[in-house]
């Protein structure tokens, strides 16, 4: 299979798996044999695990306190520990995390590559589901856009006209997600030898923030962030202060959730807890097809 695909997306995470007959009955890999032989990832900073480190861009965070709870330290992950894709690799039985495209080589690509890049945007060339199918993708999970109420940065830029600003962005994202879900269903219909599923990222994250005890620390990032001029602070200050009770915070910096939130979110994307978490079924079911 060709492994040179590259697709960018902004808050639109695309995961595709290659078919396998192996199955797992437990959330935590019971026999260390992956449910699928290959796992490829396309997305933005939610999934990026180091692709931006050597790029000429300000959107890279290969410094502490990022990675403070990750065994290898600051690897380029936009959080304090594991990302949703790291957890998903664990849940599907991989004994390693999917390597970033920037450093993957040789046999690394045989079990998948992570093409996600922080700051990537939705462009005309991004929506190439047909291309993915052409190169062998038969099991694809597409994540919807998250609502602005779930991001400290967007709350801040709306501060002077919060109601109308948030309503405008919420309506735009709702329109996007409402169109994405039937599009995903249409792909499964038009490509009958493949299965596409939609992940209700907004619904899952909203539920987590409302019910998992993060309300007290949902309006403040765990790390110290400082803006420059009129630029709102997004990322943690290099080697700056970081909270000790990170598992109790919703956000690590002004944009990205903590590892604790990502784990809860990935549990529900892998094995749905609500009928609205995914459509028509969850990633666990997709992997077993």
From TrEMBL:
Do you know which Pfam families this protein is assigned to?
Lipase_GDSL (PF00657)
Cellular component GO terms, alphabetically? extracellular region
Extract the GO molecular function terms from the UniProt entry: hydrolase activity, acting on ester bonds
Where is this gene product found?
Answer: Secreted
A Gene Ontology annotation in the biological process aspect, one of them, is: lipid catabolic process
**Keywords of this protein's UniProt record, alphabetized?**
Hydrolase, Lipid degradation, Lipid metabolism, Secreted, Signal
- What PANTHER family does UniProt report for this protein, alphabetically? GDSL-LIKE LIPASE/ACYLHYDROLASE-RELATED, SGNH HYDROLASE-TYPE ESTERASE DOMAIN-CONTAINING PROTEIN
What this protein is called in its record is GDSL esterase/lipase At1g29670-like isoform X2
Q: Which organism is it from?
A: Juglans regia (English walnut)
